[in-house]
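Side project, low priority. Logging it here so it doesn't get lost.
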Amino acid sequence: MISVKRDAQIEFDKLQKKGIQVVLNHDGKEFVTAAYLFVLKRMPDEVGLLENIEQLTNYQKTKIEILYQLAISKEATPSPNKPGSSQSARERLTPSSSGRPSSRR
C-alpha cells in the first residue's frame, strides 16, 4: 500500500511539472488516471475509473467536465485543518497569467 501511494506521488509530481496539457493529451484509462493524480493526488478507485471511462467512451462527459467534476468534489476542496491543502484543485486547474495552470504547491 505504501508503494502505491509513493508511486502516485511520483506520478503526481511529474504531472504538476508538465501541467494540465499533459493530462488532456491522454485518452481513456490513461486520461482518467492522470486526471485523478493531477486533481486529487491519488490513483482512481476502481468504480471511479470505470465510471469515468464509460462516460468518456459514451460521450456523456468531456475531459474538461471530468476534470471539473473532480476539482469541485468534496475530496478536492481544501480544508483549513488538512495539512498541505494550501492550493485547491480548482487553483491547480486555473490558468495563471501566462496561460498555464498554476504549478504552486
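Brief comment: The chain has one domain: 2-93.
Revisit when time allows.
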